Amino acid sequence: MRASWRAWLSGDTARLGPWWVNYAWTIVFGTMCAIGFTFLNVALNAGDAAAHPSTGWTRFRINMIISLSIALSIRLMFAAGARVVGNARLRGWGKARRSVYFTIVPALGTAIGWPLGLYWAIASTFAATSRSTGPMPSSQASRLPF
Which DSSP string corresponds to 33-90? Predict the structure, then answer.
């Protein structure tokens, strides 16, 4: 298990375990990011009267959707890059070229995953709100936790 985690972190070593293990580690990492961002959100909004503890689950759900969409889009970009470039060829690149590769791929994955995750988070929040209370008035929409 430790070896598969290290292979996941390195990004260019051969996959250890079944084909889905890299995606499982990506989901674990995205979940840890969502938990961290939720704690950060709660801590930074502790003095805000609108930041009621009951919104904690909603905040976690929003952070989870956004974190997983970013993490999985980055993972898919790395999977596509591995097919295009190849892991053996990538390992043969110099430090500067590898640094550019390992900077651009996560940046592009974030640029793709963040807006998608935000869109999905907003859509799911409105859907959950309208299911439980009916259509959301515009006065309540301004108090959403994001």
Answer: HHHHHHHHHHHHTTT-TT--GGGHHHHHHHHHHHHHHHHHHHHHHHHHHHHHT-HHHH
- Burial state string for 94-110 with b = 16 or more CB within 10 A and e = fewer than 16: eeeeeeebbeebbeebb
CB 99 within 8 A of CB 88: no
- CA 25 → CA 50, 68, 76, 119, distances in Å? 35, 11, 13, 24
Q: CA-CA distances (angstroms) from residue 105 to 53, 69, 82, 87?
A: 37, 15, 11, 14
Quick check: 62 and 37 in contact, CB under 8 A?
no
In this predicted model, what pLDDT tens digit does every residue of 40-55 receive, in sequence order?
A: 988 887 777 666 666 7
Tokens of 100: 């550019």
* pLDDT per residue as tens digits for the range 78-108: 889 888 988 788 888 999 998 999 999 999 9
